[in-house]
Amino acid sequence: MDYHPYTAAIRTAQFHDLSDAHCEPVAMTSAYVFKSAADAARKFSGAASGHVYSRFSNPTVQAFERRIAAMERAEAAVAFASGMAAIVAMAQAWITLGRNIVCSRDVFGTTLTAFRHHFGKLGVEVRVVDLTDLAQWHAAIDDRTAFAFMETPSNPLQHVGDIEAVARLAHARGALLAVDNSLLTPYQQRPLDLGADVVIHSAGKYMDGHGRVVAGVAVGAERLMADLRGVLRVTGAALGAMDAWLLLKSLETLHLRMAATSANALQLARWLKASPKAVDVIYTGLATHPQHALAVSQQSGYGGVVGFRVPGGRLGAWSVVDSLRLISIATSIGDTRSMITHPASTTHGKLSAAERGQAGIGEDLLRLSVGLENVSDLMEDLDLAMAGLPDHEPAAGPLHDALALG
Ligand SMILES: Cc1ncc(COP(=O)(O)O)c(C=O)c1O
Predict the structure, then answer these.
(1) CATH top-level class for 255-403?
(2) Domain boundaries, the chain
(3) What confidence score (pLDDT) does residue 225 get?
(4) DSSP code at position 350
(5) 81 C-alpha to ligand 1 centroid (Å)
(6) What residues contact residue 388 under an 8 Å CB cut-off, 6+ apart?
(7) Regions of the chain with pLDDT less than 70
């Protein structure tokens, strides 16, 4: 039966141990017992299905994979020890001599480092394009492209990529399109329905939702996931059973948490927009976002990440961070607890000033991962933290310049 996604997230891939416990068991085992030598041989060769060793598969991990696949309405999913392990596995699976990767510029920084550095040194050409510029995607994707990769909306600048259009461009040249959907989850965006071939999640973000685990998952057609399973078997970047169990439980409430976090984020974005202390507010849910119409057409929600700029460059931004009492200074996203980051000195600190400038990561930019606290408390915390900033003037005045550290 084809259940509603909320039901699928709660009921898909339930399994019970001999005690009839209602909750799925945590299969804390590395090995599995075979019925006979012939049974072992059949399972090792793949002639019969069944668990062999937990680097290859594990019942609790498999339940998590099946649940995610149901939520993304995909044939299959493969869990990994992290989002990065899932991303690198794609390159390991599909890159062969002479092939290239086309990747949008503002993806998670380590994604680009992995492609450029670790595959670039093997002679793989990595073509970096502007997420929002279809002409650049068109020019970069060719018959040698193994896969195109985008993260939409991007983090923290919330640029939106046109999934359907880029999927068409990729398919016309025989390439795959992979989309990092960590920021929105299947509840707010389903890239496979828009033509993408693979969806990647850093599952320790909204899927876990409580900041407890590092995990990743790739989702798509069985023939593609079989390639990734092959990579997993040799790299061993397998998700542990305990982490898979935590994720299974969290998926059951993901619809409620995504609705609550994005409702909080929209209210905060609107409130910041009206504040004289915020120079610019970046959130795809605001009608003023330059790509709001595209976001509306392919997203069913806007997630919990809000970017904003404050007067005073780095000094102004740091003064806000250091004055907060409730919101945590932490660089992850997707926790019940709201977190703030100054990207220029943390997540993007390894880029040169010129690269940061090109990427739009200014010293005045702050990223808020909006959690599930009461939104009035979050507003009060920010209000007090921003009280010392000068009111924003449309043009930079002397005070603005005096505060800027560059
Ligand atoms: C959007 C996005 N994709 C991928 C990753 C990498 O995932 P992980 O940290 O699970 O390796 C992150 C990590 O922060 C991320 O924010």
Answers:
(1) alpha beta
(2) 5-251, 255-403
(3) 98
(4) T
(5) 11
(6) 319, 323
(7) 1, 18, 393-406
- 8 A C-beta contact, residue 206 and residue 257: yes
Pocket test for ligand 1, best of 88, 105, 107, 110 (most atoms within 8 A of CB): 110
Measuring from atom 14 of ligand 1, which residue has the nearest CA? Answer: 332
How many A from CA of 83 to the centre of ligand 1?
A: 5
Determine the pLDDT at residue 402.
29
Surface-to-core class of residue 47, CB atoms within 10 Å of its CB (0-12 exposed, 13-18 middle, 19+ buried): exposed
Listed residue (110, 103, 63) closest to 82, CA to CA = 110
Query: Considering the domain 5-251 in this protein, what is its CATH number?
Result: 3.40.640.10
b/e per residue, 259-290, with b = 16+ CB within 10 A?
ebbbbbbbbbbebbeebebbbebbbbbbeebe
**Nearest alpha carbon, ligand 1 atom 8:** 83
pLDDT at 227: 98
Strand partners of residue 217:
79, 201
User: Which residues, judged by CB distance below 6 Å to any ligand atom, belong to the binding site of ligand 1?
Assistant: 82-84, 108, 151, 155, 180, 182-183, 202, 204, 214, 216
The residue among 150, 176, 33 whose CA lies nearest residue 95 is 176
Report the pLDDT value the prediction gives residue 159, as an integer from 0 to 100: 97
How is residue 248 written in tokens? 């299974």
Coil, helix or strand at residue 393: coil
Antiparallel, parallel or unpaired: β 100-104 and 339-341 = unpaired
- Mutation test residue for ligand 1: of 82, 84, 103, the one with most atoms within 8 Å of CB: 84
212 CA → ligand 1 middle, Å: 14
